[in-house]
Every structure is written in C-alpha cells, then in structure tokens.
Design goal:
Elements (H helix, E strand, L loop, with lengths): L6 H12 L1 H4 L10 H19 L1 H9 L2 E3 L2 E3 L4 H10 L18 H35 L2 H13 L2 E6 L15 E5 L2 E12 L8 E8 L12 E6 L1 E3 L5 E4 L2 E6 L10 E6 L5 E5 L6 H37 L20 H33 L3 H37 L10 H8 L9 H14 L4 H18 L4 H25 L5 H5 L1 H28 L6 H17 L1 H13 L1 H4 L8
Parallel strand pairs: 3-6
Antiparallel strand pairs: 1-2, 4-5, 5-11, 5-12, 6-7, 7-12, 8-9, 10-11
C-alpha cells in the first residue's frame, strides 16, 4: 500500500478545532477561506500521493551519491522537484512581496505533513529553504532581500543552515569558522558538518547560511555572526557567475533518509568563500534562532507525518494478515490480526497519538499566525508566548512519539516488519533522526524549563493550563459518558502538570530540573495532546447535531479522544512523581561509577 493523504482528518482539525475561519479574518490572511484551503489540501494530496510517495522506497534504496564534490540525487528526484516548484508548493506561507502566496503558516504546516508522510527525505530540502528564507526576510538588508529571496521563494534556489562543526556539535560557542573582511564582502574559511542538502543537483544555486567569527569577535556565542554564502556568485543582473570557493568533501552514510544528502562542507580551501554579512556583526545567534525555531516546528511536523505513514501501512497489513483465531473477529472470514485486542491497542495508540500531535502542531502554527497578524497587541503578545511555549513540545514530544509509533508499526508486522522489503523498517530508520535534528530532545526540554517557563515565572505555562481548564469545564457540562471518562483523566493530569511546574519554579538552580527536564517536556506534550483531543471530541459532538453528519466518523473522533485520555493521560500523573522525586538519584553517581 502506498500513501493516502488524510485530507478529511486534517480539514477536521483546521475547520473545527483550530478555527481556520478565524484565521481568515486576520489582516492579510483573507484568502485563506475553508474552500480555498480544502482545494489546496486536495491538490497537495494528489501531488504527494502520485509524485512523492512512489519515490520514497526507491530513493531509500538508491540514495544520493557523491563523486568529486558533486552530489546526484536518486532517479526521479529532479523531475519531482521541478514539479514541486512549478506548482508553488514551497511558497505557500512566504511573503507576496517576493513571490510567495502569503497564506498562514497553519495552512503550510498542514501541507508539509503530507510531504513528510509521503517522502521525508524529499521534504527536507524545502524545509531547510524555508528556514533560510525566514532569516533573510527578517534580518537582511533590502538589497539582500531583493537579491536572494525571489529565487528562493520560487524554489529555483534552495537554502541550507550551516551551524555544526566537527568540534562543536550543539555547542555553538565552540564555532571556529572565520570570516575576514574583504571590501563589500567577507571571505569565509572553515568546515561544517551535517549540512542537509548542502550539495545536490536539483537547482542551479544553493544559498548557504553560515555561522562564522569575525577577527575581532568576542569569545563564545556573543561573537558569532551569520553570513549568506551562495554556491555560485551572483552577477549584478541576477545571472550566475563563477563558482564560490566552497566544496562538498563527502556525504554521510546514515541509518536512514538515504536519499537526503547530509554533507560535509568546506569553505575557503583557496582564497576564501565570498559571504555577505546578514544584519549586524556578532548577532548571528539571534538570527540563527529565526531559522531554528521555524525548523524545530517543521521537524515536529516530520515526527507525526512519518508516523501517519507508518500507521497507514500497519493498519492495512493488520486487515490482511491472518494469524491465529481472533477474539474480536465476527466470522471465520473475519480473522485478520486487526481483530486481536493487543493489535487494536497498538493501532489505537498510533492513531490517537498522531491525531493529538497533528492538533498540537497546527495549534502552534495558528498561535504564530495570530501573533503576526492579530490587531490586538495583547492577543499578539499572548499568542507569541503560546507559540514559543508549544514549539519545544511540538518538536520534542512529536519526534520522540514519532519514533515510538514507527517502532509500533514494525511490531504490527511481526517478523515481516524486520524485513526491509515490507517497507515498515524504513519509516523507523528515517524517523530516528528527528529527535536529534535542530537540537536534541534534552535541548528542547531545557529550553522549555528555562526560556519558556522559568524566565517568565511560568506566565505562558499558566495561561496554557488555564485554557485547558476551560476545556475541562466544557466537558463537565455534558452528560455524555465518553466526556465524563475524558474529564476524569484530564482533570488530575492538569493538576499534576501544575504541581510539576510549581516544583520547577521553586528550584534555586537548574541542576535538579535539568535532570528530569525531558520527563517534564514529555508530560507537557502528552497533556497538550490530551487538550487537543478533548477539543476534537467537543467539536465532533457539535457536528453530530447537524443534518447529514457523518456519525460513524465523528463517533470515532470521540472514542479516540477517550482512548487517548485513558491510556496516555495517566502517564502525565506518573510523570509528576518522576519529576519531583527522581531528580536527585539521576545525578547521584559520579561519572566514574557509571
């Protein structure tokens, strides 16, 4: 079975849970009507199902190839990318001033899920371009914007992030790449590793965003600057000139995403690679986070996008595979393993968690859209806090759960899941990078407990928990038995999250909170997912009151919310114990004792 885009599920969240109609009322987003967005989702489904999904397996098997500094992508990649550009898929949320379509990030995120479900290795290329475009849009000079953005928004040039160096993984304070002033530009010298699509044959030019240090830069992260370094220099008339002094010296041999070239890039082996300072000197860390925050949300979308593909393959296999007499099969012919209770558990876990993650990912995007466009300054500020708070949850929780769900997809296949030819293993291999990309889960967790919670005294977290309590109150007003079951688990989960947050805020230093920060992130992610599922159930019940409603579909939404609440929210309660009581033992042993 190939990929079938879950258009109905995505549209349900957008229209009935997130409130797409409200986003369309914001200044500049008037075109994002439900009818237009439905047409976009339908067309995206056709493209991802017919063009990207068929290349996923063959791309994994063939992989990208490196020879003499050049990288060739798998068969079919160039034609697919050309169609991607011609259809304008990469420009959905980019500014219209530079050729973009100016749609909300929420709509773009919904489409991006389909890219990563269909073919994650392909989707990584436009993902990185988006981050580079955001950095240039927000921090470059007007001349630089006009010079680089039209082609990047169009997709005929792609972008990269060049942060990591061999001696400096996530510790950007250790960056050594140098930038020497030379007239109206700089000469860049140094090496970067793990550069996704740092070299490829899909476009005529690649625009690298490179962190480097000026000669007089202060030590540490305060001395980092960000530079625009094109693969080919650009003439004044916009035509391409000579190749810049940069080379892809190798590509990595990886566990997964074989079709996506992960490059080692060398800058300035000769005179130096020509680069242009972005914004002000020594402000590169702040500019980098413009790219990074966008990419972190996008990687979270990858997490549930690839889990959706794993679920679709698992449920199709479970319907067809017959193994033993089932307890739930209603006839001798109805003996697929989907009728074993534990297989149902796995599939319900996969589907409900995917729906929770999808809801949270779109909720986070919608918060950023409101922060950007809402006319009320106080609402904009609250939504900025909300989007920033939810970003580490979307990135950290969704990617960790994406790996777990892809592993469950292998489990449904039994021994056949361990065989590459079934395809289930590829999803697990590909998903495994996502908790590492753009900052590991621990980095997301420390960002959550520090910048996003402790720094504002828990204000953003308090606002989120208050909104959850409002949903809880709405649930309690209903006599619906499933709603009673949901509220029974949501109420103590909110209380546990509140207790854990207060414990965190009561610590004098970061040592103990850091020891259980990942549990804190996973707790808050699971709870936020439960919040989204409760809202989904409420929306489904409301739709059931309308004439011609699809009751079977809506009843499934309500039961998925109940399942999630009863199976996932108790983990929030148990996490409170781990967070508040398990920190000291975590750091009790000396390194030599481990």
């Amino acid at each position: 079975m190939s990929y079938s885009a879950p258009v109905k599920d995505i549209a349900f969240v957008l229209n009935n849970v997130i409130g797409l109609a409200n986003l369309a009322k914001l200044d500049g987003y008037e075109d994002a009507t439900p009818d237009l967005v439905e047409a976009i989702l339908d067309e995206s489904a056709r493209f991802t199902e017919d063009v990207l999904a068929p290349l996923n397996w063959s791309g994994d098997q063939q992989g990208s190839k490196w020879q003499d500094g050049e990288v060739s992508t798998p068969d079919g990649w160039k034609a697919a990318y050309s169609q991607f550009v011609e259809s304008g898929w990469g420009s959905l949320s980019f500014p219209t001033d530079f050729g973009g379509q100016g749609l909300p990030l929420t709509v773009a995120a919904a489409v991006q899920e389909m890219w990563h479900s269909a073919n994650m290795a392909f989707g990584l290329c436009p993902l990185l371009t988006q981050g580079a475009v955001d950095a240039i849009e927000h921090h470059a000079s007007e001349e630089q914007k006009q010079f680089f953005l039209p082609k990047m928004v169009e997709g005929s040039w792609t972008g990269t992030m060049n942060l990591t160096e061999p001696q400096a993984g996530s510790d950007l304070a250790a960056v050594r790449t140098k930038a020497e002033p030379s007239g109206d530009h700089y000469l860049i010298k140094g090496q970067k590793i793990y550069i996704t699509y740092g070299e490829h044959d899909l476009t005529e030019n690649i625009i690298h965003m490179v962190l480097a240090r000026l000669p007089d830069a202060p030590e540490g992260v305060k001395g980092i600057s960000l530079f625009i370094v094109p693969k080919f220099l650009i003439n004044d008339d916009g035509s391409l000139g000579q190749r810049n002094d940069l080379t892809c010296v190798s590509i990595e041999h990886k566990l997964g995403i074989h079709a996506s070239p992960t490059c080692v890039m060398s800058y300035g082996d000769n005179a130096g690679a020509v680069g242009y300072l972005l914004g002000e000197a020594n402000h590169g860390l702040a500019y980098m986070f413009t790219m990074m925050n966008q990419a972190r949300h996008a990687v979270g979308v990858e997490g549930y996008g690839i889990a959706e593909r794993a679920y679709q393959k698992a449920v199709a296999y479970a319907r067809d595979r017959k193994q033993g007499k089932t307890l739930l099969g209603k006839s001798p012919d109805d003996q697929g393993i989907i009728n074993h209770p534990d297989v149902r558990r796995i599939l319900m876990t996969m589907r409900s968690t995917i729906e929770a993650m999808r809801g949270l990912g779109l909720e986070c995007a919608a918060a950023f859209d409101q922060a950007k466009r809402h006319q009320d300054e106080q609402v904009r500020e609250k939504m900025r806090r909300r989007g920033e708070l939810l970003t580490p949850l979307v990135k950290g929780w969704s990617t960790e759960m994406g790996v777990e769900l892809c592993s469950l997809g292998v489990q449904v296949h039994g021994g056949m899941g361990f065989i590459e030819e079934t395809g289930a293993a590829q999803f697990l291999r590909d998903a495994r990078i996502t908790p590492i990309y753009e900052g590991t889960t621990a980095i997301q967790a420390n960002d959550l407990i520090g910048r996003k919670t402790a720094r504002d005294g828990g204000k953003g977290m308090g606002e989120l928990l208050d909104d959850m309590r409002s949903v809880l109150d709405e649930l309690k007003q209903s006599d619906h038995l499933d709603f009673k079951a949901i509220s029974k688990r949501l109420e103590p989960a909110i209380a546990s999250a509140e207790n854990a947050t207060q414990w965190l805020l009561g610590q004098n230093d970061a040592t103990l909170p850091s020891a259980t920060s990942v549990e804190f992130l996973m707790m808050q992610g699971r709870l936020a997912g439960g919040w989204m599922m409760a809202r989904s159930a409420l929306a489904a019940l409301k739709l059931k009151q309308e004439d011609g409603s699809d009751d079977a579909y809506l009843d499934a939404k309500i039961m998925l919310a109940r399942y999630y609440s009863e199976r996932m929210l108790p983990l929030v309660e148990s996490a409170e114990v781990i967070i508040t009581e398990g920190a000291e033992s975590t750091i009790a042993l000396d390194a030599a004792q481990l």
